[in-house]
Design goal:
elongated; 2 domains; six-stranded mixed beta sheet; Creatine Amidinohydrolase, Chain A, domain 1
Length: 348
């Protein structure tokens, strides 16, 4: 379980970032950001220079009680009532308020309700990209559970088995091993034959055929932290074209991981993969990877025009793939921890 000390460190780091950006007040409502700062995924937060507030519905006070009932919790916890946040903002004479990325309608509504200047920022998301020791250990445990699920995949993915039957056994294994939710909450991906060329294909009732490739994309969740890994499994003897692409995708993944170090631009990592595939006559249809933590996809974005820089403490995936429409697809994905400028593969 997360400690008050861990939460206090997170809030302190965020205040430091706010100060550097000239931000005095910050309203936070995104459930994952709330969970990151409070230890639970419900409520609304207002950070100010003098005091930090958390509003929750009366029904949920018990959910937080183990955290705020003794000293060291970084928030004053109050019961949410209609307009209670608005009143607090007005009483505090806040004239400029930082908010998270909102859609246009929510931004416009909030601006009209409060009647003050709003500044959109992704400070929390950027902080979440750098993992603490607690987070790294949670991700490591999550990855360990995912690997148990993948081991089961290699046992049950075979000729004649229906995709959905294989999936159900794998997901059961993941939950049995301690995952707090099904993979990615909405379930894992498993696709065989020509369906494996569909990047986000879901399992069907089709039976797996001999000589086919099966893309298995799964993960677990531990202490709220997700894992994500992909393997392409060969069923029986595969032809030379499939073998060649299987070997090449593994090779390009290894070469990409070798290029990872602190200070490298994330888009440069992606551009390398894209260029190498184009040299072989293939198109690359998705990003090379993504950060992973309280969400399956978060910063950094290892993709084109990313703007993110790889930093110490980041955890992200590297997942090159080649897809031949109406024939087959190949993808390999692993979780990477960049720590003390050294690369550790958490899912291999």
């Amino acid at each position: 379980m997360i400690t008050r000390y861990e939460l206090k460190k997170r809030v302190k780091r965020l205040h430091s970032s706010m100060e550097k950006k000239g931000i005095n007040s910050f309203l936070i409502s995104n459930p994952r950001n709330v969970e990151y700062l409070t230890g639970r995924d419900t409520g609304r937060i207002l950070l100010t220079k003098d005091k930090d507030f958390l509003w929750v519905k009366e029904l949920y006070l018990d959910i937080y009680s183990d955290l705020y009932s003794s000293s060291g919790y970084p928030f004053d916890v109050e019961v949410y009532e209609k307009n209670s946040i608005k009143r607090k903002i007005k009483r505090s004479r806040i004239r400029k308020l930082a908010v998270e990325n909102l859609n246009f309608l929510d931004y416009d509504k909030l601006k009209k309700e409060l009647g003050i200047n709003l500044v959109v920022t992704d400070l929390v998301e950027k902080q979440r990209a750098i993992k603490s020791r607690y987070e790294i250990e949670s991700l490591r445990r999550s990855a360990h559970i995912a690997m148990k699920g993948m081991k089961k995949a290699f046992e049950v993915v075979r000729e004649g088995v229906r995709e959905m039957d294989a999936l159900s056994e794998i997901e059961y294994e993941i939950r049995k091993r301690g995952s707090e939710s099904p993979p990615f909450e909405s379930g894992m991906l498993l696709a065989s034959g020509k369906n494996s060329a569909n990047i986000h294909a879901r399992a069907s009732w089709m039976r797996i055929k001999k000589g086919s490739l099966v893309v298995v994309d799964l993960g677990a969740r531990y202490n709220g932290y997700f894992s994500d890994m992909t393997r392409t499994i060969e069923v029986g003897k595969i032809n030379a074209e499939k073998r060649k692409i299987m070997e090449y995708v593994r090779e390009i993944q290894d070469e990409t991981i070798d290029r990872i170090e602190v200070g490298v631009k994330a888009e440069d990592i992606h551009n390398f993969v894209e260029r190498e595939m184009e040299k072989r006559g293939y198109r690359f249809y998705h990003s090379t990877g993504h950060g992973i933590g309280l969400k399956v996809h978060e910063l950094p974005n290892i993709g084109p025009e990313s703007g993110d820089i790889l930093k110490d403490g980041m955890v992200f995936t590297i997942e090159p793939g080649i897809y031949i429409p109406e024939k087959f697809g190949v993808r390999f994905e692993d979780m990477i921890l960049l720590k003390r400028n050294r690369v550790e593969i958490l899912t291999r």
